Structure to design on (216 residues):
C-alpha cells in the first residue's frame, strides 16, 4: 500500500466514523487502566460485564485496595486469567497510591512499571486517556496491518513502528481505534468480509479480488 492509498484508507474510515471510541466502558483514567489490564485474552463485552460490578464498588485505587484480593478475584472470575489479573490489579493500585498519589501516570515508562501493564496497555492509556498518537497493536491491528499491506511486520513492535511512520499525522490519534474496529467487524481473521469493506479498493488483499471479478 502506497502513500496515496494510505491517505484514502484512513480518510474513508474517518468519514464513516469521525470519532471512534474504545468499546471498553469506563468513567475515569483509573477505570480505563483497570479495564485494559483485565482485557488481555478476554473480550470487551466480557470485561464490561465484570467491571460494571467491580467499578460500582471500587472506582478508585484506594477503594480497590480496600476490597481486597479475595473480593476482587470473585468479582472478575468470569474473565480469563482472573486470578493473575486480580493480583496484578491490586499490586498496581498499591503502586498508584504509594508512588503516584492515586493518579495514573502519564509516561510510558511509569505505566509499564505497573504489574500487568505491557506496551500495548500503556499505549491504550496514553492514546485514549491522554490523546497521544500511539498504536496499541493487538491481534486485530496486527492482522489488518499485514493483510492490507498498510504496515507489514513480523511482530507487534515492527507493526507499531511502521504504523507510526506510515499513518499520516492527521489520522494518527484515532488510527488504532479505526484499525481495531475494522479488524473486529470487517477484516475478520477466518473469513474477511471483503464484500462489505469500504477500503477494499486500496487494500493489497481485497483489490486483486475486485480486479479478478471484473475480468471477463
Amino acid at each position: 500500500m502506497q502513500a496515496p492509498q494510505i491517505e484514502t484508507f484512513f480518510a474513508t474510515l474517518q468519514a464513516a466514523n469521525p470519532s471512534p471510541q474504545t468499546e471498553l466502558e469506563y468513567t475515569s483514567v483509573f477505570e480505563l487502566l483497570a479495564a485494559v489490564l483485565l482485557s488481555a485474552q478476554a473480550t470487551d463485552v466480557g470485561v464490561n460485564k465484570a467491571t460494571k460490578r467491580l467499578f460500582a464498588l471500587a472506582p478508585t485505587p484506594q477503594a480497590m485496595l480496600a476490597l481486597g484480593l479475595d473480593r476482587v478475584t470473585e468479582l472478575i472470575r468470569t474473565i480469563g486469567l482472573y486470578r493473575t489479573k486480580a493480583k496484578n490489579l491490586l499490586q498496581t493500585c498499591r503502586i498508584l497510591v504509594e508512588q503516584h498519589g492515586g493518579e495514573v501516570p502519564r509516561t510510558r515508562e511509569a505505566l509499564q512499571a505497573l504489574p500487568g501493564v505491557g506496551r500495548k496497555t500503556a499505549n491504550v492509556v496514553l492514546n485514549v486517556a491522554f490523546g497521544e498518537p500511539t498504536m496499541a497493536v493487538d491481534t486485530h491491528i496486527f492482522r489488518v496491518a499485514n493483510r492490507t499491506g498498510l504496515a507489514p511486520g513480523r511482530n507487534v513492535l515492527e507493526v507499531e513502528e511502521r504504523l507510526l511512520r506510515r499513518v499520516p499525522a492527521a489520522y494518527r490519534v484515532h488510527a488504532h481505534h479505526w484499525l481495531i474496529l475494522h479488524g473486529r467487524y470487517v477484516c475478520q481473521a477466518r473469513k474477511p468480509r471483503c464484500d462489505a469493506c469500504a477500503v477494499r479498493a486500496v487494500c493489497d488483499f481485497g483489490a486483486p479480488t475486485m480486479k479478478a471479478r471484473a475480468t471477463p
